[in-house]
Amino acid sequence: MPNLKAALLLSLAWPLAACAQPEEQPVVPRSLGAGTGGDGVWAGSGAAHSPTTIKVDETAGPEGTPAAVLEFTFSPGKYNYNWAEVACGSANAAGCVAVRVTYKTEMPDGFPALNLMVRESTGAGYWVPGFLPPSPTRFRTETVALDRFAVPSWSKDENGELDTEQINRIALGLETGRSGKGRVLIADVELVPPGW
Ligand SMILES: [Ca+2]
Fold it and tell me: Which residues pair with 52 in a beta bridge?
């Protein structure tokens, strides 16, 4: 049955060939390595009076999966802010239409919803402030369309357009005048193509 054998070989080889195309447009959501950051890198930052760290905990995610854990101490009487940022690494954001985040929060009552931001390689930031509600009891997944993102007053974009092929970092974080210690557990950040 040589034809059947050839057909089988073809059906096996085709997906491999498809994966080998380096500049494929995304067809399914691209996870940035789930909680581990994959080949991207997690970085934590914040105001000097808002000390913030981030590390990957191999079992802090849903059902014992990895999560990036942002841990912070916000000072009384100050305007506090921080960011947990992951690099896209080899995940190509070109053509994506949304960012999907799976997260859980452990922070004092009254703390605000989280900010979500994408950054271009130009340095321009686009964000949706105060959009991800606290989720203290379970991991929550939110999908945020890129057309909701806008340039904040403290950033600028020379061409005034969010260029998806230039997105190389995604960040979420908090800003508040409130004080206290808390954690944000991030189980996944995904680049979402049309239809998902
Ligand atoms: Ca731009």
Answer: 72
